[in-house]
Amino acid sequence: MFNRDRWKEILEVLTKNWFRTLLTAFGVFWGILILIILLSAGKGLENGIKQDFSGVATNTMFMWTQTTTMAYQGLPEGRNFNFKLGDVGLIKDNVPNLRIVSPRNGLRNQQGVDNVFYKNESGSYRVFGDYPEIIFQNSMYVNHGRFLNYDDIKERRKVIVIGDGIRKDLYKETEEVLGTYLKIQGVNFMVVGTYKEKSSNGNGENAERQIYIPFTTFSQAFNRADNVGWMAITAKDGFSISQLLPKVVSTVKESRKVNPKDERAIGYFDLYEQFNRVESLFAAMRWIAIIVGTLVLISGVIGVSNIMLIVVKERTKEIGIRRALGEDPWSIKKQILMESIFLTIISGMTGIIFGALFIYGMNALLDSIGPVDMFLNPSVSVGVVLMALAVLIISGLFAGFIPAQSAIKVKPIDALRTE
Questions:
Q1: What's the structural domain count of the chain?
Q2: Is residue 289 part of a domain?
Q3: Which of 181, 167, 147 is nearest to 209 (CA)?
Q4: Cβ burial 20-39 (10 Å sphere, 16+ → b, else e)
Q5: 405 within domain boundaries
Q6: pTM for the whole structure
Q7: What's the pLDDT tens digit per position in 188-233?
Q8: Residue 152 main-chain phi, psi, to 5 deg
Q9: Is residue 238 part of a domain?
Q10: Structural domain contains residue 110
């Protein structure tokens, strides 16, 4: 395998007509490069889309009430109704394998109408009444102070956690936020913490302009009694919320006296189902990239095989002489196979190097221009590179097999007569 004379001969054969060899190698080079570009671009798009789900409990559903469309138990159709706080306990008791059931309420912020005031500053922000578990369902983390806790819930404390965007809007840069009071629709609340979004895809600042109040405090301050606006429900790891969803909906239908056949009375959004669709989409995109890149690579390998057939044809007399001098047919076959594998691997490795440079350049460009929506950190795993190397070796063997077989079938006496 490492015979010096053999490798010298391989190099002489491949460089004898270097332009032809270069054009042949380009097919394999281009196939590998296209494969890497497609996979890295797909990964960049996947990373960008999944950044929206960063820190979010994706195994989650959201549920809210709508208008009934069927009469039931003496109650008319067209009835509006609300979830009650007691429904949370019913769901926990009747639906197994749920990790978090978060009742939520909210204030609608009217466009152009300020609802939050601090000293001489004011703004229009979304305000939510929540339980402490909501932090595990949203893409957020506390960067100063603390989040809501169950003492706040139990004692109905007038405390709030605000987004870092609100801090920038209402406070001076060096001003201490904790312990200050914001007035929300005429009610004063003390700031006990600020939060930031885990997502960095450009939408973080909008999400950081929200306010969280203990659910019980919110209900008391804004006269919501025990009504619940909507719920965020997360299943335990290993269990699909999509499978538990029908049981959740049927439980609240029974509690709120809604006809079991009324499909419009309760609205819901299955985040887990949407996340799985995104996963399936990118899995399909990966396969498309692999198939397209492989087809381009195969065309290059076919080119290598054709050129090796031409090389064998040109060396018919040489092969005949070597056979006449007693050289083993396997030795000649191995020579042709090594030439084919060498050409394939060199051109393929060049394609991998250029692909790596392309990925490096793309990441450097993204770093210089900042975050780009739906595109982040294009890359290709080491496993893909190793797989590409394996494909190159196998492709080289296949590319040289037919020419090698053709070479050993040459009869010495016929080869010596060839001009």
A1: 2
A2: yes
A3: 167
A4: ebeebbbbbbbbbbbbbbbb
A5: yes
A6: 0.71
A7: 999 999 999 876 544 555 678 999 999 999 999 999 999 999 999 9
A8: -60, -40
A9: no
A10: yes
